[in-house]
């Protein structure tokens, strides 16, 4: 895994750009720990100030310094994305590897369940949860719900990799050596699955953050927590784009685009690493 | 043919299970709503004037019985299914006592129409461009389309839709930014009406296309760049098979199979986008209805919209699955 | 050597890979000169990644980056029509493909488009070169398949509905339906089981004899060579190291590498230990100086590591590139009997 | 090319599907143009109607739109009481040709009806319609005014075609209020239509038959717009006394997205917007010269006679303790609340009467001295004078750098616009009061007498200025060591307030006529007779569930005092003083609605300064008087 990263970093320009972009937003989110203002406070600075030396990102109509407010928003949003990715990885690895390794009846049953989850329209279900939970729908709860809905795509991919590993020589040796299936799966197979786990994790983050933004924009999350979604909600609530406080929309959008682009490039370059055919092709076109 | 029936039967079973699981989940989640439909209705009915406590009490009793809230949960669940099978999901609360299903059915065609148009366009266009970009990897125009797509892809959908409103409604006000058709026409089988519907759906559909096309573009490009290395493509090239035949019949045609599967898998997600579209463009449809239901505390209607969404998406997937063997002969036997 | 259909002179084709500022040449085909006669089956043998696939890519005019022709020429003579696939325009190439020059590819599983019926594939491949309209074309194809003793019902099938052997026979039908003068067969039987392999080979041979076409037959399987080819060229690390009539090469190899290849053929009843070839084929990106075989050659001397041995005549139509060609002896008792036609397994 | 063909094909198919399903509403002629100089376009604040073809506004909660023109242009009833000055006084005789007549003990009310009024289908309006309206609703539970009529009316009779007499169950000097429109009122039903119907509650009433000068022209089957056309016989309606309405067509459009409202008005597709954000208002007034609000300059918005406030659930501890309520009030900074909610465009009120309509003259100005001198006993022997009469001036100074000349400088004007004053933030006094109530401070955290941290949730609106108000209030209390979380609650009026499912909320339980000092409109329902046990449904509007003997005395006296009696004002002021003393709710400001109108196509609109004849907040049925005053500018 580490050498994979090293190789990617060395030889893959997309991966490098992706790392840099993700690093930018991560550092930005990290700045929230140095914020002079608590995130939920309003009317602490003069509202509606455009970006300036004093307020780098300007101030919004709620009297918040957008720079510091967005650091919190990114911390919460990225943290949320990571948590969803982490939790859904656990489910997708378990399901994917079990189905791929055990095969047969187990595989069919798991993939049947998998297909059900794929077919569920997630958004109405999320809204239903919001409808029921209201303010109790904090970021962690939302993350758990999203994780429970966001694993099937990736489980299928992991399964296909695991399916290939089952027929490999070392698997047979391990079976002869008397290793139990769980150990084979997690000791022998997991390292091979990791690249695709990583790549799907990036894609999953884009997915979950996208939903967070959508829910937030509609006001269907806890509006007291600063996130990218709620930032846009408040901006919209104050007609930001129409009344000319454009920085309130443009800056978070630029930042989220940076984050998404970074994650996207990481996922793509990782995918390429997994599929050597497209890598060869890339070498070819590099002439 | 028998193989196909077996295949279709299996898919149908899957459809049934999805609908069952999805609606059951929706029922259970909605059931735990702290907002009591009974109290919501009483609030709405009594909101406009003062109600005597006795009148409220008798109304409450009637409604409790109507909703069956005096029964145990499993009984309510069975009742739910009993009514559900007959296409009845109880009364809506924000338009009491109009059946929730009636409201949903009124909104459904708009959503389905808009989504179908948007999905078909973005799928075809995205796959076409992506396929060409994957095949002609050195083409400048296709390369720059790829760069633009990478730039647009991460923009949250809401922003794309809203920018279109600002751009075509404000800066350069040439497009309608709200409604399903113009106030000057009436719904009828007339050229004017159809054109008006088209004209009004253009901007919302375009926003969905812009947002959706990237996925197909990238997916197809990646698929094609792999498929061109397949033996049958090389072989056809060696045989001097016509370029267009190779691109169309060999490369794209084979890439379409996984892209069709991807379409089925993406439908649930695409449905989410339309909720925002309808919000931003004030377009009629399920999304607007859902938002109104949530804000109105109408658990019956929220449940109905969720169930219909589950059914609609699952059915769409089912239909796509049925198309699958037509595109991929290998599925037919299995 | 009166009427060669193909003449290759001093051909060099490299994979030129440029990455991160470095230019790296993989010398897949390095200074190859050869001629192929009309009606002849010419075998090309060699280990995997010896460059034989690259060589036939050039011959089949399937040169795609990063493969580039650096030097030399290739010259086809199709009944007076002279064409060099490395220099010809796309239109010119399209003219000769399938009509004069066809191809049977490795891997029968994947050379047919899985979503097209066989008939459609025939149409794609052969309708233009044959210049026939729908019904006439269909009749021609059916006639051809009949001739090959293939059921015409395969035309309505999809590739996945056919067995591996049937698929490869269909491919042969596909490659021969236009009655080309030259065919390139790249490992056509590798993935097939032995019985099917035999049937496919005999089919190919029959068609070839009827049409009088020339075939370049590439395989790493020496027993197939023994059965199929008239002449063999041995390729090692991008170079042609020995060339001669099949029987001669098997009985009197004049290159130590050839001797090893021949010796590696298993023979029934022969339980003697085989002298194994040590080491691995060299990297084509950085081949050894001098004779490229010398690091593995038991007979290597000082000159071998210094100078490249020229490909020189060592007998009737027999050429070898070895400083010690005279000293090479077969490593096992020659047991070649082409007439018997048996494949030793 | 293949792609394009397929694209076109798919597009066509999908559209036809849509069209086909929408077709079932097909009735009217295919194309109607609405000439811009004959058409008035108004934003309806309701979301697109849930039940578009339903016009039956006597059945509550049936999903019919109300403020889509139905109640402004079609429905009518006996009297209107305007929140503003009115065309000729705030009280209009509408279907009645004179004021309400009670007998001496207020057990009978007689209404004399206007003659020569016709329904839009040509039927004459008579006393039978009024009698039918009352009797039908009394006999049919679940209709909007069923309960109100049942509680009050013993019997109703048509004395003759143009006279109706109500016999009341109990003396009530305010019975006429049911037929007096403030926002809405008990609309008269067309007897000749409804008597033909089996189930009046299920009846859709499409097309509606009304007494107003407009009839339904067409509507969107998706409920997002309704177009109305002037009746040819508009002069046979009660509105005719104010002249011919200007617009031939009036269209009400639902535009939920605020930005779209701004865009549509900028593009000339909207003449009157019901409500905007403060920022949106500032922006459109700056961008489009022909657009203005109720006030020409800052604060632009129309103050509705509604009083946003902090409501305590006085049945829950510790909010049953007057000292705690006062302490919480003294922790607040009125300037911050005004700035955060309305960007300074708020009209503050320290007393429980909205600072709007005629109320400042009746209450705020006369009571100013009493408020300045008011002494609050902190319980430890100290007293303070908490009222600050200068807060309005301070806010005016705060917004002047941004708005310059738009901000008035004259003291009286500032008091009208920004309010007469509010409570001074006094943390020390608040601390004393809380300590007197048994609270202790642990570090920066207030602990309840039980030793728990003092924390609670404040329910507020899910968006708009009241949401902002709730947020800033929570923040100010949190800064003082009470952990308060704002909760955006879309169900606040639907369930939260009626069921008492809250500790503290920002909403309102005070709504007045605006144009009359009488407070009975809301106050009658505050009588302790109506207060229910915790968990039960409280009838409108005593959401604070507060009981007080003095309050009951005031209410009971109002019930037997004639509407126009000056004694009402004295009783109102007594109520105000009681509320200041007890603080069961903390009044904050009037509900200022950012209605703006465009004078590009129509002129003659009401203004705050010269001609405040009607409320421009157009979901009020009272806004109908505007249409008679409008004339086209000639622009197209």
What does this structure look like?
The complex is a heterotetramer of chains A (about 290), B (about 325), C (about 350) and D (about 625). Chain A is built from 13 helices and no strands. Chain A has about 290 residues and is mainly α. Chain A has a single domain, classed as MetI-like fold (Orthogonal Bundle). In chain A, α3 packs parallel to α6. Chain A is elongated, with a radius of gyration of 22 Å. The C terminus of chain A is likely disordered. In chain B, α5 packs antiparallel against α10, α5 packs parallel to α12 and α7 crosses α10. The mean pLDDT of chain B is about 85. Among the domains of chain C are: about 110 residues, P-loop containing nucleotide triphosphate hydrolases (Rossmann fold), CATH 3.40.50; about 110 residues, no CATH class. In chain C, the strands form two sheets. An eight-stranded mixed beta sheet of chain C has the order 6-7-8-3-9-10-12-11, sandwiched between helices. A four-stranded antiparallel beta sheet of chain C has the order 2-1-4-5. In chain C, α6 links the parallel β7 and β8. In chain C, α3 packs across α4 and α5 packs parallel to α6. The radius of gyration of chain C is 21 Å and the shape is globular. The two termini of chain C are about 35 Å apart. Chain D is an alpha+beta fold. Chain D contains 19 helices and 29 strands. The chains are: A mainly alpha (about 290), B mainly alpha (about 325), C alpha/beta (about 350), D alpha+beta (about 625). At the B-D interface, α2, α3, α5, α7 and α8 of B face α1, α4, β11, α6 and α15 of D. Chain A: Belongs to the binding-protein-dependent transport system permease family. Chain A: Its main location: membrane.
